[in-house]
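This part of the workshop introduces the protein records we will be handling. Each record describes a single protein and holds just a pair of labelled lines. Instead of coordinates, the fold is spelled out as a row of discrete tokens. To make this concrete, we reproduce a full record directly below:
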Amino acid sequence: MTKLTHLSATGDAHMVDVSAKADTKRLARARGRVVMAPETLALAVAGQAKKGDVFGVARVAGIMAAKKTSELIPLCHPLPLSSVSVEITPDESLPGLRVDVEAGVTGKTGVEMEALTAVSVACLTIYDMLKAVDRGMRIDGVELVSKEGGKSGDWRRE
């Protein structure tokens, strides 16, 4: 069984000491989606949401969230992020919006949580921006797509 690094020998939660690790380039990609009524998607794409630019606000919210991850997730290390990109794409087949995030850092620990937090907050922001017209929206499919770098190496979702 794999040992959980955030638990001490006695089973107490603690922040992992990464001071002995070398700084390496690390990259993580995550995704999620907000499923909504076709009319809600059309409203967002047309830029006619009462609260403003759904895409722009959600993109900035995702970037801000990535930067605040260590303040939200108790055992995450604060990271000096070198990059965060948030792409929001309409998808009529859902119907809804797809959110893709890529986060990068050169450091001692990975950026998976930052990418996942950015996706989650961008999706929540989309919901907030459009909830007045569609409370039945659904956020789902939030997942890590890939990670690169670090001691454990690269990983990709099949």
User: Anything to note?
Assistant: The radius of gyration is 17 Å.
